[in-house]
Amino acid sequence: MKFIIPSYVKTLLNKLEERGFEAFIVGGSVRDTLLGKTPSDYDITTNALPEQIEEVFKDFKTIPVGKEFGTIVVVQNEGNVEITTYRIEEDYIDGRRPSVISFSSDIKEDLKRRDFTINAMAYSKKRGLIDPFGGREDLTSGIIRTVGEPRERFSEDYLRILRCVRISATLGFKIEEATLKASKEMSSFLEKISAERIRVELFKILLSKKPSYGIKLLYSLDILDIIIPELIDTVGFDQHNPHHEFDVFNHILCVVDSTPAIIDIRLAALFHDIAKPSTFSLDEEGVGHFYGHQDKGVSMAEKILRRLKASNSIIEGVKILVKEHMTQHNDYSKKGLKRLIHRVGKERIYHLLDLQKADMKCTSKNRDISFIEKRKQEINDIIKENEPIEKKQLDINGTDIVNLGYKQGKLIGEILDYLLEMVLEDPKLNKKETLMETVLDKFKM
């Protein structure tokens, strides 16, 4: 197969080779190229020492981000490239980083320290493909296999256990038997890994083409019990409801698979019914109900996402979607839809519709969801008309109200809330003079 390497990467490879050093693209960029994909970034490995790399690229902007580990980042307009000296790693004592690193002159020694065979390949135009561990064959067979003994590789960095699942999920590959066995036996060691590193891998699983594949793997390997134990109660939980074909866990998986690959929506899909087991009740006819599960689900989702050190913006977005996901059953007037858009936000309202559509599709096969498309059109019309749906669209603001003689404080917010309600009912009232007259008439100074 012909390797097409971008010119900005070729420039770096050529500069190293012109100075008498070996230089290869390595890891994921080789793997993706062999799969016929365009790599998202490129890493280079070389026998040049860190100081020599800096000297070769003295006319470039470089960042010694991991110089002690042999890595120098070369800044390019098209993207930063990490250039790392061949190295040997020894004596892993914390399941994350080696206590001893030594540099090597042998590319094969460097590839030996890598996690999986499909990531342990290197390529240069001079030497062709370097593949000492059968990575290309595993790539062709669709297999994830560690380089060497699985327990040894995982002991070097326990996150590799989760990365194994992530690569399997994103590529749709099977995990080789010995690697799979070691993954399960050593999964408890993931408790030693930081929440931030776990979050990165989990989010990539959720954004894969079929996230349910990865989530099921997490469950079967006892990893889900470590990173999101709150989901375990949903597994096999019978909803006792004629409108639901699946248990709670498989319903959740179906919804996650059926939503767009946007992290807020995928997380909301994962958590939207997480509180069902703890809110379950049976009526006199033996039908299951889950009153308030969306509200409890909000608090559970927030707790999980804070534990994973997710950003505040993601947490707030997921909370809103989980809280509002049951509003699909409401019969909204135009004013009601405006209120919904106000609560959710103009951009997020479409995320909510995507979540609701997936939720209904995964409830029963013959569920009619055409009304969601109709609601989407009604929301499009409201937004296109630019009618006020939030306080900042009012033709009056807090400063205007203070200038009327009202004191700064809670009352200003209450006044604006009242005016928004009025304008939601009748958009023609959104005129400064009319709003100011209303304030003076309805609120005492």
Automatic annotation (TrEMBL):
InterPro entries: Bact_CCA-adding_enz_type3_sf, CCA-adding_enz_C, HD/PDEase_dom, HDIG_dom, NT_sf, PolA_pol_head_dom, PolyA_RNA-bd
Ranges where the Poly A polymerase head domain occurs: 23-145
Family to which the UniProt record says this protein belongs: Belongs to the tRNA nucleotidyltransferase/poly(A) polymerase family.
Record domain tRNA nucleotidyltransferase/poly(A) polymerase RNA and SrmB- binding: where: 172-231
Entry's EC annotation: 2.7.7.72
Protein name: CCA-adding enzyme
UniProt key word Membrane: no
Group of enzyme by EC: transferase
Domain CCA-adding enzyme C-terminal, residue spans: 301-439
Cofactor: Mg(2+)
Organism per entry: Tissierella creatinophila DSM 6911
Keyword flag Zinc-finger: no
An example molecular function term from Gene Ontology annotations: tRNA binding
A biological process term (GO) from this entry: tRNA processing
NCBIfam families xref list: HDIG
Assigned keywords, A-Z: Magnesium, Metal-binding, Nucleotide-binding, Nucleotidyltransferase, RNA-binding, Transferase, tRNA processing
This protein's encoding gene: cca
